Amino acid sequence: MRLSETIMLKLRNNKPVIVHILIGMVSGYFLLHPLSMVIYWFEFNESPVMFSKFLEIFLFRLSYAFNLEMFPMAATFAAIGGLLGLGPGIFIRSIKIKQSRIRGSEKLLQKSIPSLIKEGENQYVEFKRSLRYDYRQVKTDKNNEDNVLRSIAGFMNGEGGILIIGIDNDGDVLGLHNDYWSLKRRNKEGFHQRIIWLVSSRLGKDVSTKIHATFHLLGTNEICSLYVEPANRPVYISVGKETMFYLRSGVVTNSLTTSETVEYLKNRNKF
Residue 166 maps to which CATH number? Predict the structure, then answer.
C-alpha cells in the first residue's frame, strides 16, 4: 500500500475524531474565549448584570478577543476545546466501528452454509480441509492444527469471520470423518472439545469464548463452521520458538513482522 493510500485510510478511519476536535477548537476560539473575557469583566467590575449590558459588553469583548495581542489566550482556549472534543470523537468512532462489525457479522449469519461455500473464500470466510488429517500424506498430522489456529487468530485480530472445516479451497465437501477417527471421542463432540482445548491452551482461555461451533450435514458428509468473534486484545500464537501475530486480510491470513504488528495495534483502537 502506497504512503498516500495509508494516510487517506487513516484519515477516513479517524474522521469522527478529527471532526470533533475541529468543532471543539472552533467552539473554544469563538465561544469559550470571548465568553470567559465577558465573565472576567463582570467579575472585576461592579456593574449590575443586565441583558442589555451583557450584550453590549459581550460584543465589545468579542471584537477585542480577536486582537493579535490576545492570540495566545485564544489559542489556549482553542486547544482546550479541541481536548474536550477528543473524548466524544473517540467514543463515536468506536461506536461506528462496532456497528460496522455487527453489520458484517449479521450478513454472514444470514447466509446459509451452502451459500457461503458457493461464494468462496473472502475476508470473512475461509475454508480448511481438516483439523488434523493431511490429505497429501494420507495420515493424521497434528501440525495441521497450527494452520487452523493461525486462521482463528487472524480472524480474532481482524474483524472476525467464519472458518469452515471439511471444505477444500475449491469448495468441495470433504467432511470430518478422517478427523473424527484421529480423536479419542470419534464424533462431533470430540471434535468440538479438541477445538476449544486448542484455542484455550494456545491462544488463551479468555478468547475461547469467541469461538462458536456449528455442525452441518451436507449429503453424507458432516462439516463444522466456526464463527469467530473479534478479540478484545491482541492474540498471539507460538510457532516453534517464535511468537507470531496473524491477521486476516483479503483472502489470506498473513503473519506480521514486529514493526508491522506494532503499527497495526497502534492504529487499531479496539485493543
Answer: 3.30.950.30
